[in-house]
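User: Sequence in, structure out. Go.
Assistant: Echoing your sequence, followed by the structure tokens.
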Amino acid sequence: MPISALQYSNGVGAVEQPLPHSEFLNGLPEPDQKLILDRATYQKVPAKETVIQGGAKATQLFLLQRGTARYYRITNKGDELLLRWLVPGDVFGLATLLKSPSAYMGSVQTTTECSFYCWTHVDLRRLSHTYPQLTENALRIALHYLSEYSNRHARLLTKTAEQRLACSLVNLGNSVGHANLAGVQVDITNEQLGGLADVGLFTASRVLKKWERKGAITKARGRVFIQSPEGLLVD
């Protein structure tokens, strides 16, 4: 169900963990950041819940504080196109900043239990007038996303499936991986990793098995442990 049907928790003081660095608040003094966060609704959302639905009017902007989520679109054939793996500090729903918001371009579903800051269109417009840096930051984020998608398209045309998988896995290891005795743990399925790299499930599973035989990774259900990043592309 969309997050509008889930229970919100209003309240300052609901935060359990420090907010990770977010480009959305970049360049603002800490007191101003706190005032902006105080105007948000703080929400805890279980895993596998839809937060926004692609095609619906953009009415809320979200900043992910804890957990991971997937940003995707559904093709005309009904296939799911995974566009981005959202990590703490990421924002989505940027169209909410517009005077007349357009539709959400994609859908977001939590992959783990998540916590979000959320601003309504009315509150966000008021904040953007008080703090113009928010609008500039939003534009920078949108341009960064565009650059990422351009680079992804370039990799699709110039890199092999194995190279694209390696790039996606290493990037995830750097952004959301956490080290333990088994290596750098990334919580993701073969299908999800393949979707990020524009690689089919069969090919993704085959390449991951190859890396496992080489000792570059180990696998568990829904998890990849990176043991040798440099070994992912070494034959």
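User: And one key feature?
Assistant: The chain has two domains: 3-157, 159-231.
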